[in-house]
Amino acid sequence: MNQPFEAQHLIISTEERIWEKGVYEQTEMCYLWADEETSRRCFLLKMLPGSSIPKHDHPYRELAVVLEGEVRLNDDVMKAGDFLTAGLGQAHDVYSEQGCVMYIHVDFDVTVYELVKKDRPGT
Predict the structure, then answer these.
(1) What is the distance between the terminal CA atoms of the chain, rounded to a whole angstrom?
(2) CA atoms within a 13 Å half-sphere pointing along the CA-CB vector of 109
(3) pTM of the shown model
(4) Cα-atom radius of gyration of the chain, to the nearest Å?
(5) Are 23 and 29 in contact (CB under 8 A)?
(6) In this protein, which residues make up the domain named ChrR-like cupin (predicted)?
């Protein structure tokens, strides 16, 4: 996942993508790039129809673009081409009725750092 330092650029073709079981049920992830020094990660998140991610906060900044389908974050609906940024204190739940694919860039390792769940009303 981490490219050699001397490499000028990295291209991952559609055919080379490797999809793995996601962190949450009915999700898949395709890890594209990682910087081990800063913990930054870029990946694709595929949410299957009817899947959800519980309400959570982020330890650092998240940047996301919907590539395919539609997804709801709290009461907001995002469609293909829409952009999101969220950080600490900007909690949301995520739900996709029809399914979607999102490109996501985060400043933390999603495979190690668990998102902070927000279970209580008003948190």
Answers:
(1) 35
(2) 11
(3) 0.81
(4) 15
(5) yes
(6) 8-104
d(C-alpha 32, C-alpha 22), whole Å: 14
**CATH class given for the domain over 26-115:** mainly beta
CA 107 to chain centre: 11
Residue 68: name the closest of 112, 15, 28, 116 by CA: 28
Report pLDDT digits (tens) over 85-118. Answer: 987 778 888 999 999 999 999 887 666 555 544 4
Name residue, tokens 């860039």: 105
The contacts of residue 59 (CB under 8 Å, 6+ apart) are: 88, 108, 113, 115, 116
